[in-house]
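Support request, priority: normal
Reporter: lab tech (M.K.)
Component: structure prediction queue

Hi team, I submitted a job for Transmembrane protein from Phanerochaete sordida yesterday, and the status page still shows it as pending. I've pasted the exact input below so you can check whether something in the sequence is tripping the parser. The sequence length should be 205 residues. Please let me know if I need to resubmit or if it's stuck on your end.
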Amino acid sequence: MSFMNKLRKPPSTKHQNSNTPSVDGHVVQSRTMTLARAAVTVAAAPLPPFVGAPIPKSAMPVTRSEQYWAGRALTAEAILSAKVQHHAEIRTLAVVEETKRMQEVAYVHRMHESRQRRLELIATGLVALLVVLLSSFAYTLYNTATAASKSRSLHFTIPILSPFASVVEHESSVIGTKTLVIFALFAAVLAYGCFRFWISRRLQR
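Reply from support: The job had stalled in the queue. We restarted it manually and it finished. Here are the results:
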């Protein structure tokens, strides 16, 4: 019996609670807790260099409350990092879309200006052509009137009235030169107004 008692080992401190401090002030961890921490360390995703740096033993969570708050802190940091990255991507997309929109607006503005210049050139050419036509028409009418006034009168005798009576005949037009010029100017102004109205309607579309 005494031999059997000698074979028995004295109770070891390994069976103590993991949260019970030892004599020297350090906390004794059980073998199960050590294996669990090793498994968590292996299964965890690789962290950045500044996060994956070795943590001093004094800063490592030991109690359940410390582990809980450490887990919550890590979760909050991960969520914050994801939100920051998401906001950065949104800002980048917003800048890209704004740049694209500004380029499209500038392209439409250039197209509108080029079209406006072409229409102005066409209008200027038509007005110049109309002025030339009116000037040539007025000059022709003026030359015709001058030639008619300079032509000599026709004298002939009407024997029925008297052998000594004479009639002077002048060539004259039914419509005067001033009337024709005024009518041509009115037609030119009306044509120009119609053309400007047509251009404004085309630009509003």
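DSSP finds four helices and two strands in the chain. The longest strand covers residues 154-157. Let us know if anything else looks off. Ticket resolved.
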